[in-house]
TrEMBL record, chain A:
Stored InterPro entries: ABC_transp_permease, LivM-like
Keyword tRNA-binding in record: no
CDD domains registered for this protein in UniProt: TM_PBP1_LivM_like
Membrane topology designation: Multi-pass membrane protein
Name of the protein in its database record: Branched-chain amino acid ABC transporter permease
A Gene Ontology molecular function term of the record: branched-chain amino acid transmembrane transporter activity
GO cellular component: plasma membrane
Residue intervals passing through the bilayer: 12-41, 53-76, 82-102, 109-127, 158-175, 246-271, 283-306
Pfam families: BPD_transp_2
Organism the protein comes from: Thalassospira lohafexi
Keywords: Cell membrane, Membrane, Transmembrane, Transmembrane helix
From TrEMBL, chain B:
Entry's localization field: Cell membrane
Any GO molecular function: transmembrane transporter activity
Name of protein: Branched-chain amino acid ABC transporter permease
Annotated source species: Thalassospira lohafexi
TM annotation in the entry: 12-35, 65-87, 108-129, 149-168, 196-220, 226-258, 270-287
Automatic annotation (TrEMBL), chain C:
PANTHER family listed in its UniProt record: CONSERVED COMPONENT OF ABC TRANSPORTER FOR NATURAL AMINO ACIDS (PTHR45772:SF9), CONSERVED COMPONENT OF ABC TRANSPORTER FOR NATURAL AMINO ACIDS-RELATED (PTHR45772)
Keywords: ATP-binding, Nucleotide-binding, Transport
MF-aspect GO terms: ATP binding; ATP hydrolysis activity
Protein name: ABC transporter ATP-binding protein
Species for this entry: Thalassospira lohafexi
Annotated ABC transporter domain residues: 5-247
Keyword ATP-binding: yes
Cellular component per GO, a single term: plasma membrane
Length: 315, 299, 258
């Protein structure tokens, strides 16, 4: 298997991150873990944006990933974190395969609204589920990795961070290939001209379906890692404003590069941490104005600043 | 029997409330093709304006209770008008012509901005204006006691719905609006001032949203975040009915209202689920909503 | 001669408007058929129905003797009937060569791969050959929105031909193309078509172009076929002269319909 420049750079950054994790303070590790895990959810949003669909309900899979990891340990005796994460992705894939049958018939605002509705259905179920802690959710703890149980908080924080970085690397490489592969490029083609895709003898619905399911699994992984990192899940994960946040990060980064969502998520988390501390009542306003600014001045997201010198070159 | 009656009464009350909330949203979408995420914020602004004005009126014992109803409506009209004009002239006007889905995101940004603006103006502690609600008393239906204010809401909603319908279908201005809805380019070619129609429509929509909030204010405690809860409900209603259709919004509101009331009485754990369940079900069989029209792309 | 495409009393009504009335068309393998008619005569409606974009109100469509009525455009394309569009249908954010590469991948398999790159060396090489065949190799890396109308039309037709169709429906291949470019464009297209042994049906406004390339002409007027036969005979037909070509004393000049 050959690796291209982007993949090697991603791997180097990932190794640097893991090493950095051993020396940096706990709060920073925590912040980065959450940011990277959210970035994975955002990758799912971005995958769909490439195909022209804006999901206002990606929180559904974020929540499924998180709750599956939590419930796996709590109720089904699956304490191994990696198995639980995989289970979360599997559940998300099954759910996406069912919902996708319906959702792939829709475009534009109809897709946005219906995806929002599905995520709100899960929210509605969870807030009424006493056994799962209703609106409070429940705690996620006592997990192990390959039989090893981290015994201090710092240990487990460190472990989740390392897992998140490695998962991020794996997913980034896969998505990088995916976007250049048949399905990735042709999903963009669907966005650009669906009629033409149909007249090339391809099924736009099948393509969007495959893409939707793939995006769901990536987002569920992000949700599972978030649950491990915060040690808690609650129905808010499926609430529509959570999905709105993912769209925000996706637009902030732009669709230009697989690394963009990671960078955008880190920027987002840092700004949020400080805003909530210093200007708690204007945090959303800052978000709103930033979003408008990005739409008007950086329609291709933050990544367009990085890649400005290389403009004209197709990657 | 009693519970069936309760479902019908609760359902109608909830439906008329939903219709009030959704009417402005659907009018704006119908004419401007903007699915306005910030509609819930207009609702909240209306609620805050009304609650602070009416609260102040009663706390200072200024005059008779009936005036408070005028204040409710007045506060909503003024707030809706001001915010509507500012938002349309100051933001949306610069954004027209963009993708429908991008407009959704732009109005989402607007929602974020308005949410915090409200926190700055009104703070984060709750506002109450319960007097207009309790003042009207209750009516007994057998064993059920129903607030007269809620019943009046049903009337207001029906009058408003009929008024909107009559305005769109029976007046000249309505005709012009329908021309804009039908084919914007031809409307422009026929000399319709589309920009002006957009401003009128948007301000009408925000005012309707604010009015819904103001009329709800006496029945709830007005706190940050009420708009965010309301907007998804309004979406469900208009999507079910078919985006942009007044009649559709009415039917959508009834459908959601009655199903929710039924859920509350018979299976409370499905209360929220049922709303989006109905929405998904309707869309599964009628992608454009019950009263929407499909538009084919020309090649 | 075997029939490749046959329609039997095909009807299409849009509300009260009759866009197609009892269309009975038989096209034999290897034929090059021209379709003429003024705007709104039902030519594009006919192509849209045959390729599955519009569902006929009544009637039957047979392709190679099998009914394709109600099939999706995708299934009909896969069955071997391709089309081009009045306004070139391309992927506007992609370069010319990438448009062709997408078409090549589509032709190879209806299920694109998840991880192996779309721009493989083999596909790039093949796309370059096609670009050369159509004489648009200069535009290889330009965005399709940045190339002249004629080249875009060629990309559109090349994409249709990449799937090796048995039959190709061209919807006004020269519309929007300047007078000087028309003949060159049609020569290129017809050469490619002959090499692939494709049956062609094309809609055209320019009678020069029609006479030059087709073996048979169908004249449409208000949803009906009013004449069908050799070009010379059809163009000499009185009704055709009155209703289709008559209002244009000379042949349509200038920059064509756009």
């Amino acid at each position: 298997m050959r690796f291209d420049k982007t993949e090697i750079s991603l791997a180097l950054v990932a190794i640097a991150c893991v090493l950095f994790g051993f020396v940096s303070p706990g709060w920073l590790i925590f912040l980065l873990t959450i940011a990277l895990a959210k970035a994975l959810v955002v990758q799912g949003v971005v995958m769909q944006m490439r195909s022209g669909l804006v999901s206002f309900g990606q929180g559904l899979f974020y929540c499924i990933g998180g709750y599956t990891v939590g419930m796996g340990g709590q109720f089904f005796g699956i304490h191994d974190a990696i198995a639980a994460l995989a289970l979360g992705m599997a559940v998300a894939i099954v759910v996406a395969m069912i919902l996708g049958l319906l959702l792939t018939r829709y475009r534009d605002i109809f897709f946005a609204m219906l995806s929002l509705a599905f995520s709100m259905i899960l929210f509605g179920i969870l807030v009424k589920s006493q056994g799962l802690g209703s609106t409070d959710g429940f705690n996620v703890h006592n997990w192990t990795v390959f039989g090893w149980a981290p015994d201090t908080g710092a240990d487990s924080q460190q472990t989740v961070f390392t897992m998140t970085v490695l998962a991020g690397l794996l997913i980034a490489v896969l998505i990088h290939r995916y976007t250049k592969a048949g399905i990735g490029v042709i999903c963009e083609a669907v966005r650009e001209n669906e009629v033409r895709v149909e007249y090339l003898g391809l099924s736009p619905r099948w393509l969007l379906y495959g893409n939707y399911v793939a995006a769901a699994s990536v987002s569920a992984l992000g949700g599972g890692l978030t649950a491990l990192a915060t040690g808690h899940v609650d129905p808010e994960m499926a609430y529509w404003t959570t999905s709105g946040e993912f769209i925000f990060i996706a637009l902030l980064g732009g669709l230009g590069h697989v690394a963009a969502p990671f960078i955008a998520a880190i920027v987002f988390s840092v700004v949020r941490t400080y805003s909530i501390e210093f200007v708690p009542n204007t945090w959303q306003m800052i978000l709103g104005f930033t979003l408008l600014g990005v739409i008007v001045f950086l329609p291709k997201g933050l990544w367009s600043l990085v890649s400005r010198e290389k403009s004209g070159e197709r990657t | 029997m009693t519970s069936l009656l309760a479902v019908l009464i609760d359902g109608s009350i909830y439906a008329s409330w939903l219709f009030l909330v959704a009417a402005g949203l659907t009018v704006i979408y119908g004419v401007m093709r903007i699915l306005n995420m910030a509609h819930g914020s207009f609702y909240a602004i209306g609620a805050y304006s009304a609650a602070s004005l009416v609260g102040w009126y009663f706390n200072n014992g200024i005059g008779p209770a009936w005036i408070s109803y005028l204040l409710l409506v007045g506060a909503a009209l003024v707030a809706g008008l001001i915010v509507g004009v500012i938002v349309e002239r100051g933001l949306l006007r610069l954004m027209y012509g963009r993708d429908e889905i991008l407009m959704v995101i732009i109005t989402y940004a607007l929602l974020l901005i308005l949410e915090d603006t409200m926190k700055i103006v009104w703070g984060v502690s709750p506002y109450f204006a319960y007097q207009p609600y309790t003042e009207l008393g209750r009516t007994a239906f057998g064993l059920l006691k129903v607030s007269n204010y809620d019943l009046a809401l049903v009337g207001v909603s029906a009058v408003l719905g009929l008024g909107l319908w009559a305005w769109l279908e029976r007046t000249n201005q309505g005709k012009v609006l329908r021309a804009v809805i039908h084919d914007r380019e031809i409307a422009v070619a026929m000399g319709v001032n589309v920009r002006l129609m957009f401003t009128i429509t948007f301000v009408l929509g925000t005012t309707l949203g604010a009015l819904a909030g103001a009329l709800t204010a006496p029945a709830i405690s007005v706190v940050p975040g009420i708009g965010i809860e309301v907007i998804v409900l309004a979406f469900a209603v208009v999507v079910i009915g078919g985006l942009g259709s007044i009649g559709g919004a009415a039917v959508g509101a009834l459908l959601v209202g009655l199903s929710r009331a039924a859920a509350v009485h018979y299976a409370p754990e499905f209360e929220l689920f049922v709303i989006y369940g109905v929405m998904s079900l309707v869309l599964a069989f009628r992608p454009e909503g019950l009263f929407g029209r499909t538009m084919a792309r020309k090649i | 001669m075997t029939t490749i495409l046959e329609t039997r009393s095909l009807n299409k009504e849009f509300g009260a408007v009759i866009a197609a009335k009892d269309l009975n068309v038989k096209v034999a393998k290897g034929e090059v058929v021209g379709v003429i008619g003024s705007n709104g005569a039902g030519k594009t409606t006919f192509i849209n129905m045959v390729t599955g974009y519009l569902k006929p109100t009544r009637g039957e469509i047979l392709f190679n003797g099998k009914s394709i009525l109600g099939h999706s455009p995708r299934a009909i394309t896969r069955a071997g009937m391709a089309r081009s569009f009045q306004v070139a249908q391309l992927f506007p954010d992609m370069s010319v060569i990438d448009n062709l590469i997408v078409a090549l991948a589509a032709a190879e398999s209806p299920r694109p791969s998840f991880l192996s790159p779309l721009r493989s060396d083999a596909r790039i090489a093949r796309a370059e050959e096609i670009l050369a065949e159509f004489g648009i190799e200069n535009y290889q890396n330009s965005k399709v929105t940045a190339v002249p109308q004629g080249a875009r039309k060629l990309v559109d037709i090349a994409m249709a031909l990449i799937g090796n169709p048995q039959m190709l429906l061209l919807d006004e291949p020269t519309s929007g193309v300047s007078m000087d470019e028309k003949t060159g464009l049609m020569d290129t297209v017809m050469n490619a078509v002959r090499q692939h042994g494709v049956t062609v049906l094309f809609v055209e406004h320019d009678m020069d172009v029609v006479e030059r390339y087709v073996s048979r002409v169908l004249a449409f007027y208000s949803g009906e076929i009013i004449a069908d036969g050799k070009p010379a005979a059809v163009l000499a037909d009185n009704r055709v002269r009155d209703l289709v070509t008559g209002h244009r004393p000379t042949h349509k000049k200038g920059n064509g319909a756009s």
